[in-house]
Design brief:
By secondary structure, this protein is mainly alpha-helical. It is built from eight helices and three strands. It has a three-stranded antiparallel beta sheet, with no helix packed on it. β2 and β3 form a beta hairpin.
């Protein structure tokens, strides 16, 4: 293969295609993102497995950074409880911080109250199977 100035090519493509961190519809109406990346399934657009893994790793790291240092996260005294809280952050994003009373119960390690409060939440109503798994992890620590 001929020598190619890869960095220059990437600059040119970024200029010509544009860069977008969000999905948009291209000039033909197809879902696109990144630098001209066709993502519209009607034309076979998709993410590759390694891209999905990279996005997941980035998102998990973001969830960890958002939870790290919070008294309630530090009070989660088992791997399962920390994973449960990270799972919630992953799903809810910053909305997790609105669970003030629940998070106060986590900080006190009052796992019975945590479970009771979460079962009464809209989050539990919207995603009951996932919520039940996470609640069990918080209540039992495993």
């Amino acid at each position: 293969m001929a020598d190619i100035s890869w960095d220059l090519l990437k600059e040119e493509l970024s200029r010509d295609e544009g860069r977008s961190a969000s999905l948009y519809r291209d000039s033909l109406g197809y879902l696109t993102g990144g630098v001209g990346r066709l993502l519209d399934p009607r034309l076979g657009g998709r993410f590759r497995e390694n891209e999905i893994d990279l996005m997941l790793s980035n998102d998990v790291n973001t969830a960890y950074v958002q939870n790290r240092g919070k008294p309630w996260f530090e009070a989660a005294n088992t791997d399962a409880r920390r994973r449960a809280l990270l799972n919630m952050r992953f799903q809810l994003g910053n909305r997790l911080d609105r669970f003030e009373n629940t998070l106060a119960s986590v900080a006190r390690q009052d796992w019975v109250d945590v479970g009771r409060r979460l079962r009464q939440s809209r989050w539990h109503q919207e995603t009951p199977e996932r919520a039940d798994r996470i609640i069990r992890m918080l209540e039992t620590g495993s």
